[in-house]
Amino acid sequence: MPNLVVDFDKLLTLSGTDLGATEYTEITQEQINKFADATGDDQWIHVDPERAKDGPFGAPIAHGFLTLSLIIPFWGELFDVEGVTTKVNYGLDKVRFTSPVKVGSRIRMQATIAEVTEVKGGAQIKVASTIEIEGQERPAVVAEFLARFYK
C-alpha cells in the first residue's frame, strides 16, 4: 500500500509534498544479469563478477538504466491517485547517474512532488526523485520523473 493515496480532485494542491522514502531493496547479480539479457548490454563490468573484482569498482555494478527503471516499483510504494481512468509514465527530466551501485548494495528512493500542472483531461506531476545507496553519501540516481493522471 502506498504511503500516500489521494483523490484526483486533490492532486493539484500537492506541489511541494514530501513523499518520504521507500523501503530499501537489494540489487542482486541475478537482476543485473536479467537486465543485461533484456537490453543486450552485457558489458563485463555488469555481468562478469570475477573480472569485475579487478575492475574500477571492485565488484560488478548495476546498469544505470536498471537503477533508473526501479523508479517505477519505488513509485508504487510512495504514491497513488484514485478517481482516474488512466495513469501514464510520461517521461524523465534531468537524469544523472551520480554513483555506481555495486551488486549487493541496498537502494531506496526519496521523492517530493515538485510541481503539479493541469493538462487536457487530467494533471501532470513532476517528482524530484533521488535513489539513495544505503551507507553512502552520494546517491545513485537523481531524476525528475513525470507522470500523468487522466480523469
What would you note in describing this structure?
By secondary structure, the chain is of the alpha+beta class. Helices cover 23% and strands 41% of the residues. The strands form 2 sheets. Strands 2, 3, 5, 6, 7 and 8 form a 6-stranded antiparallel beta sheet that branches. A hairpin with a 2-residue loop joins strand 6 (106-119) and strand 7 (122-133). The mean pLDDT is 96.
Keywords:
151 residues, alpha+beta, 6-stranded antiparallel β-sheet, two-stranded parallel sheet, 5 helices, elongated
What class would the helix/strand composition place it in?
Answer: alpha+beta
Our estimate of the beta-strand percent is 35-45%
- Identify the overall geometry: elongated
Profile the largest sheet.
Answer: 6 strands, antiparallel
Tally of alpha and pi helices: 5
Number of strands: 8
- Low-confidence regions: none
Measure the end-to-end span: 22 Å
Percentage of residues assigned to helices? 10-25%
State Rg: 17 Å
Order of helices and strands: EEEHHHHHEEEEE
Kindly report the average pLDDT value.
96
